Structure formats: structure tokens, C-alpha cells
Amino acid sequence: MTDLSFENVSITYRSSSDRGDVVAVKDVSLDLPAGATLGIAGESGSGKSTLIMSALRLLPKSARLDGRVLLGGKDLQDLNFGQIRAVRWAQASIVFQGALHSLNPVREVGGQIIEALTHHAKDTWTTPEKRRDRMFELLSEVDLDRSKAIAYPHELSGGQKQRIMIAMALACEPDIIIADEPTTALDVIVQKQILSGLAALVAERGISLLMISHDLAVLSAVCANLAIMRHGKLVEYGPSDEVCLRPQEEYTKQLAGAFPQIGDPESRLNPRTLKPAEVTRAQPYTMGDEVVLEAKDLSVSFDTRHGRERAVRGVDLALHKAEILAVVGQSGSGKTTLARSLLGLQEVEPDSQLSFAGKPLPKKAKALRTFRRQVQMILQDPSGSLNPKRSVYEAVVEGLRVQGIRDREYERVVGALEAAELTPAADYLESIPQELSGGQRQRVVIAGALALDPQVLIADEPVASLDASVRGEILSLFLALKKNLGMSALIITHDLGLAWNIADTVAVMKKGEIVEYGDVDTVLKDPQHAYTQELLAAVPRLGSQSLVRNE
Amino acid sequence: MPANTPAEAAPGKPSGAGSPSNGSDPRGSDPRGSAPVVDGAKLVRERRLNNAKKNWALFRSDIPAMVGAVVLLFFIVIAVVAPLIAPESMLDVTKQLDVPRYAPPSLEHPLGTDDLGREMWVRILWGARVSILVGVAATVMSMVIGTIMGLAAGHFTGLFGGIIMRIVDFFIVLPSLLLAIVLSSVLERGVFTIVVAIGLTSWASTARIVRSQTLSVESRLYIERARILGAGHRHILFRHLLPSVMPLVLANTTLTVGGAIIAESTLSFLGLGDTSKESWGTILKNSMDVSAATSGYWWYVLTPGIAILLVVLAFTMVGRALEAIINPALRSR
Q: Which of B54, B222, B242 to mutate to test the interface with A (most CBs of A within 10 A)?
């Protein structure tokens, strides 16, 4: 068995830009004895990915490593290229972040698993037949059907792709598996399946697992020890339960608090953040009786290869003034289709009724344009929703120009940016998206919608791609918009904690149908439908190591 | 096409404010929203002017681009002032009777002389006029047609997009040299005919490239966002799609200019050009006629060849710099 240890590791990126050399990791010492599990938590930019890349010497040329990385007692720096190749995959393997991009789209996944075998373990799986058998063995280990071996990546779901990645990592029977945010893009149910799969493998095989994530709850579900990193430094290290439930450092408390525990009254309608958005109105708006946006018997169908598929079936929804409604469900449950059809972006079936402020949704292009002034949508990915070549000012002003609003353009833009808490707005007007952080980009997108003074905001996974602390800020912004402007919002998410944090009502969607719909407090505290209970049970809890102990 | 496409779409670095790169926004320090009435249009104008200045500064700091620009400027200037430096009579064969034929380059004959005793440098000077004019004009024509057709084929789906794509396909499968020959023999002889012949035969490949780029941009989220904001076809086409295909078109332009200059040479070589006008292609044709390369008259072949090479290279270097300015994401690479 092999131990992995980092001894006083510092990693510096040489850079010719104005920023000079960037210290990504500063004096970190960590130990991963054989058979142990260690989780590293931290926000983006904390240096956690850089640190684990050094474990296989995968750092780019511009990085300089001080200190020692020992794998099985050998310093990785001393190995030559042939030796390091032998170490990679055979002794330690990596499950990369974003399985969607790590698989070759034009090859069958089975062949891609065999590729790892042909390159690395020449002695054990010597013939093509043996490799094939090994590949099927691996597929069954990650709970995939044999028939998936001839599937192409685009034919698999996100969770299945992630399992293929894990199968590839397991291929050569490594002693150490390094997992880089293995479940970030997945919904809670699939996340639970992947995590329990990993946990079981670790327990059965005695493999050591090094996992990094920004989500403490995910790490604590699997790992025995936890390390918290911030700005390249180790902030806290200890047994998982200690770190999560009795954190010593302020930063750890903040991380632990960022993901709400459902049922905890303290975080109800109160997303934890250091920078809450201000509520300026003396008497904040609360949910009213007036119905703004309503859908009755809404159905949407798509033509697919296998005939017509109904993505949304007979949905009834009513969004009131100053209400935040969370639509929760797994990926593929039709949430996004529902949102698009509420905006008139998606053709609906003839007997569906959609109405805005009591009137049916317009069909003509010109009337639709006016309608879109009232109802705005924020798309899933803030980086993709902004044209990379256009400045913040141009991005925010776009809606005004399209809608033909010409007066007080500058004030409207600045006002919208400030309502989205991007202050002082004037400093950001000329920036291009590349120069902004993820949270700032999301604020620009929100400002672009706010500039039109809409009555309803529809947001598709508004915080899914953001860091824990930024998540709190954006959520508190939604709450403040509701309280200050009386805006209604429909938020689509797979995160039940988000609903607990800000929503008034919640609708749980499964396979295009709403299975449970009601007040957040009632639904989440006392779920009636089996599916809601399943979703709630799949949410990882802090400090329980639930998945490992259940096995 | 609107006049304000590429330059407007190219934002500079944020001005004085510095780059706000991390999440430390100092809160409530200076709410400048209530500043005196600011004219939005004026603000945008000022920003464009600033951008133009910044882009010029960027261009100047790029050494290959400046070298290319100087070379181009040199050829353009000599083409424009050719009649002043070398009167047209210097090309008149009847007046060169006392000049030695096939004189190698020397102090007296800087670039040598040709089979009729004409000075090579005079021919290059006069040839630059036609060659550069045809190269640029044919490229502009091909780019304009190609960009419009490509954008339309990529943006509009269904029957309309399909029809446009079939038209593009038709032009792709046409043997372009043959079409050019037919066109230049049907139409009146002259520089304009050559421009039309080259322009009409070379736009189809541009349209293909523009279409594929349009398709990939079309699926980006910011197009969807524009639709949500209520945008129609015109807004999406001219505000988002056109600026994003412009770098590609520009990069393609630099290559096409070279191709067009060579195509002009080909047509002149085949005797389809305006025989009364001097062009680099004509010089090359003459050199082939007298087997200059095999007879050791290297200056006869090399001089027009190097002139073509220099101009094409200069266009490429300038084009690359323009591409980097238009697409800020390329700058750091």
C-alpha cells in the first residue's frame, strides 16, 4: 500500500503579467496514510486543485514547487519521466472535475476505459480479451450496465459519465484515488449514488481517497479527515466531525454555515452571508394575494428520436405578487422547459393556459416583446450569458435598447447595477466579463434584467456555479429585491437548501409533473410525497459521514 | 452592414477605475448614481473614441504589425505616385531601343531590365497599382457577399436557410477558374471585370466558415439572453453575431488578399486580364514566355514574386494584429 504525504509544499506560478508571481499554495503539510480518506475544502482560488495536481506532478511548466511530495516514501521530484508515468494511474489516479469535458466525445466509453489499461498495466491485462473482461468488471463495479460500454458520451447522463470517469480511475487498481469535485454538477440523488459508490469502494478495497470540494457537507459524508484551505494556506485540519460541528476558525464556521441545514430555523429566509443585501424599504413587501403569473394545465412536448416525449405534464402554478417560488427537481425533470414556456420561449400544447396579470400570454412578436419587459429570466450560467466582448454597460443597456427605452439610459443602467449590489457602479461600467468574478458576472446579468423594471424574475439555477460565500450574497440579493421592489421570483433549482433559504413556496417536480406544492415550511418539514422525502434524505448533512457508516 | 461593427464591439480595458477582479467591492462609498444628468449616447461616443485610441496604441506596440503596415504603406504610396516617379513613357517599348535587354541588376539598372529593355523597377511600380487594387477590391467583394450569406445561412433555420445553403453549395462546386474565365471573356475586358470574376468565385468558402461560426455562437447563452430581453433578428444579427464572426472574417481576409493577387496573376497569365495594363501577374507571364527562369534571368522571375510575397505577408501581419485587438481574449496568448 502507498502513503501520500505533502511536506511543507509551496507552489508558485510564474507569471509575466502585472500581478507578478502568484503563490497558489503556501507551506501546506498533509498526510494521507494508506486506506484513509481525506477531504480538502475551500473556495475557488484557494489552491486546492493546484495542491492535488502536484500529487501526480501534473502541474504546468510555469509552476515551481518547494517542499516535498512523497508517494510511497519516494519524492516525486526525483522520479524521471518514465517512472512518473508508471506512477500515474497505476498507483494514483484522478477523477477530474467535469466529466462532460474529460471524455472523448467521438469514442465509445468502453474503449476509453480500455485505453487506460493498455497504457499502464501491461503485465496484468495482457490480451485484448482480458482487457475487455476487466472493462466489464469495472462497469459492474460502478453499477453500470454492460450495454453502456458501446455508448458514446453524449448518450449518457451526467451521473453516468461521472461513473465512467470513476471506472477509468479504478482501472489499474490504484492505491490512491484523487477526486476533484466529483459531484459538483450533479443533482442530490445522483450525487448520493456517486458518493456512496465511492465510499463503498474505499471501504471494500482499502483504497485511500483524496477528495476536494467546495461543499463541506459532501466531504463530510465520505471523508474521515477534513482540511480547510484558504488563499493557499491550511486553515484547519482534523477529524471530519470535529471540523464540521465544532469548527475552531472563523472561516470554517462561515463555510459550514453557507450550506443551510434544512429545518434549522436560523437559516430560514436568511441566507448566511457576511455581506447581506440591504433592505431599504421601511415596510418591506411581503407575499400578496394578487396573482401575477399563472399556468393552468401546462404541457410541453418535444419530438425526439423515440417519438413525442412530454417534458411537462399538466402543471398548475400560480405566482403571487412579491412571492418567491422555488421549483425543485432532479435534472431532466422538466424545470427549465417549464420556465421557458412561462416566458413564451417554448411552444406549449394547445390546451395549456398561461396568463400574466389576468390576461393570456401574447403570441405575436411585438406583444411578446412588451411582455418580456414585465417578465425577465436569468439563465443558468452567468459566464455564458454575457457576450465576452461587450462591457458591463453594454450588457445592461442591451435590454433597454431592444425595448426602445431611450430616456435616462445612463441613470437606469447605474440604478440597475446598484440594485444588483454592484457598487460603486461607475467603476464596473467599462469592464468586460473576463475581468469579473463569477459572483460579479451574475450581478451584471441580474442588473440587465432589473434595468427593464420587470415584475417577475425567473432564475434558472442562479447560484449553482458559484462559491459558497457568493451564493449567500446572491440569495440575499433576491430576498432584498423582493422586499424592496415587491418583485416576484420563480427560482429553478435542484438545491432544497436554497428553497429553505429564501422561498415562500416550493413546488417539487418529477418527470414533468408537480408532485408536491405548498408552503416551504410545511413541505420541507413534513413532506408527504415519497419523492420529496427521497430528495430530502439525499441532501448530505454536515459531519455525519452518513454514507460510509450506512454501508 | 452597419458602419460601427468591429471597432465598436472591441472594448478596451476598463479606464481609470482599474480592474475590479476580486469580489472586494467597497460598499456604499460613493453612490455616483445621482450624478448630474449624463447623456448616455455621449458617454458611448466618448468610450468609442477612447477605444479607438487604445486600439491604436495596442496596434503600435505590436512590432510585426507595424512592420507589415509600413510595407503596405510603402507599396500603396509607390502605386499612387507611380506616374510621378516613372512617367508612363518609360514603359513604352519603342523608347527603350538603346537600353540593353536582360541587363542584370546593377547601379544603372537597379532591378535589371526585361526582354524588351524595360526597367524592372518601373514595371513593378506600375504593376503594384493593378495588383493591389484588384487584390483588395476582389477581397472586399468576396468578404461582403460571404459574410452576408454565411450569417443568413447560419441564423435562419428552415426553408430560407436551406435555400441559401444550396446557393452556397452551388458556388462551391463550380470550378472557380472556369467561371472566372467565362466571366472575363463575356464581360468587357478591364480591371473591374477581373475584380468581379475573382470576387464572385471566392466568396463561397468564406460563407461556409462564417456559417459554422454563426451556428456555434448562435447556441451560446447570451443569444438566448438577448431573446429573453425581447430582441429580434436584426439585433441578434448585427449586435452579437456579426461582431463575433468579424475576427474570423478579418483573418480570412488577409489570406484571401494573397489569393486574389495570385488569382489576378493567373488570369493575366492566361491572357484574360487587361493587356494594356501592367500587373505583377503580367510580368510573371512575360518572364515565363521568355523562359527567364531557365535562362538565368533570375531577376525577371524573382522581382514580381518577391513583391507579391511581401504584400501578402504584410497583409497577414496586419491582419493578425487586428484580430488580437478585436478579440481581447486572444491578447494574452
A: B222
Q: Which three cell numbers stand for residue B33?
A: 448614481
Confidence of residue B6 (pLDDT cuts 50, 70, 90): very low
- Chain B residues with CB-CB distance to A399 below 8 A: 229-230
Which chain B residues contact residue A370 at CB under 8 A?
A: 230
Is the pLDDT at A6 greater than 50, yes or no?
A: yes
* Residue A78 to residue A103: CA distance in whole angstroms: 31
CA distance B63 to chain A (A): 19
Q: ipTM of this model? A: 0.71
Q: Which residue has the higher pLDDT, B171 or A467?
A: B171
Structural domains of chain B, ranges and CATH numbers in brackets: 64-90+109-332 (1.10.3720.10)
Residue A418 and residue B33: Cβ atoms within 8 Å?
A: yes
Q: Does the structure show a pLDDT above 90 at B147?
A: yes
**Residue B278: which of B118, B152, B157 has the closest Cα?**
B118
Residues 6+ apart with CB under 8 A from A202: A37, A177, A208, A209, A222, A548
Query: Rounded to 10 degrees, what is the CA torsion of B10, B13, B19, B22?
Result: 30
Which of A16, A364, A398 is most worth mutating to test chain B (most B CB atoms within 10 A of its CB)?
A398
Please list, in sequence order, all residues whose beta carbon lies within 8 angstroms of the beta carbon of residue B280, skipping any fewer than 6 positions away.
Answer: B124, B127, B128, B130, B131, B261, B264, B265, B304, B307, B308
**Which tops the pLDDT comparison, B107 or A305?**
B107
Å between B252 CA and nearest CA of chain A: 20
Distance to chain A for B242, nearest Cα, Å: 12
Q: What is the pTM of this model?
A: 0.73
B-chain residues near A428 (CB < 8 A) = 14, 17, 20
Closest residue to A428, CB basis, from B9, B20, B327 = B20
Beta-carbon count within 10 A of A420 CB = 26
- Do A113 and A168 meet the contact criterion of CB atoms below 8 Å apart? yes
Nearest CA-CA partner of B236 in B155, B165, B158, B148: B155
- DSSP H helical segments within B229-290, as ranges? 233-235, 242-269, 280-289
| Alpha helix ranges (H) inside B187-241 | 191-218, 221-228, 233-235
Beta-carbon separation of A275 and B27 below 8 A: yes
Task: Select from A379, A389, A476 the residue whose CB has the most chain B CBs within 10 Å, as the one to mutate to test that interface.
Answer: A389
The alpha carbon of residue B317 is apart from the nearest alpha carbon of chain A, in Å, by 23
pLDDT recorded at residue A358: 81
CB atoms within 10 A of CB B269: 19
Q: Which of A370, A414, A427 sits opposite B17 (nearest CB)?
A: A427
The average confidence (pLDDT) of chain B is 78
State the Cα–Cα distance between residues A258 and A272, nearest whole angstrom: 6
